[in-house]
Design goal:
The chain has helices at 20-27, 30-35, 44-62, 107-122, 137-145; strands spanning 3-6, 10-14, 66-71, 76-84, 93-98, 127-133, 149-154, 163-169. By secondary structure, it is an alpha+beta fold. The chain has a single domain (3-176), classed as Gcn5-related N-acetyltransferase (GNAT) (Aminopeptidase, 3-Layer(aba) Sandwich), CATH 3.40.630. Strand 1 (3-6) and strand 2 (10-14) form a beta hairpin.
């Protein structure tokens, strides 16, 4: 397991093929299905395919990706946070999702801030985007709290759901993260 970073309460590490049960749980949680969408990950075989062809391949191709978030000293997976590079966007975007029992405890904020700092310091990112559905009030609140500004409403190519695109100029507030 490659650890990426630590915070006061969390460890962010690369996913591995041993994380399939957690992937099934997270990708079928109410919040994921409502705000991100059904990825048809119904069993550990589906999760293994998703990990290999999406998350793990990004590590090889890009040197970064979405990371598993664990409670420090407990090795308990609670969510994911990291960067996604989409061909249709000019910059990387911040992605995060947590199991419902870990919402409203500050974990997403803690992980997202640490991820942004890692992106600025280790990946030399100058700007980061974020995408959310226009009804995802919790994510909108978190993004605003950590320095993202709403840029526009838009649609991903081939999609019919209107989304919000947020932007964070990391150099504008580099001393605050």
């Amino acid at each position: 397991m490659t650890q990426i970073l630590q915070t006061e309460r969390l460890v962010l590490r690369e996913f591995n093929i041993g994380d399939t049960a957690f992937v099934v749980e997270l990708l079928n949680s109410e919040g994921w299905l409502k705000y991100i969408g059904n990825r048809n990950i119904n069993n550990v075989d589906d999760a293994l395919h998703y990990l290999e062809n999406s998350i793990l391949s990004a590590y090889t191709k890009l040197g970064f990706g979405l990371w598993l978030v664990e409670l420090k000293n407990q090795n308990m997976a609670i969510g994911m946070c990291g960067f996604i590079k989409r061909d249709t966007l000019d910059y990387e975007d911040l992605g995060f999702a947590f199991l419902p029992q870990y919402h409203s405890k500050g974990y997403a904020t803690e992980a997202a801030l640490a991820t942004l700092q890692y992106g600025r310091m280790n990946l030399n990112l100058k700007q980061v985007l974020a995408i959310t559905t226009i009804t995802n009030e919790a994510s909108i609140k978190l993004l605003t709290k950590i320095g993202f500004g709403l840029e526009k409403r838009f649609y991903l190519p081939g999609e019919t759901e209107e989304l919000f695109l947020f932007r964070n100029n990391l150099t504008a507030y580099e001393n605050s993260i």
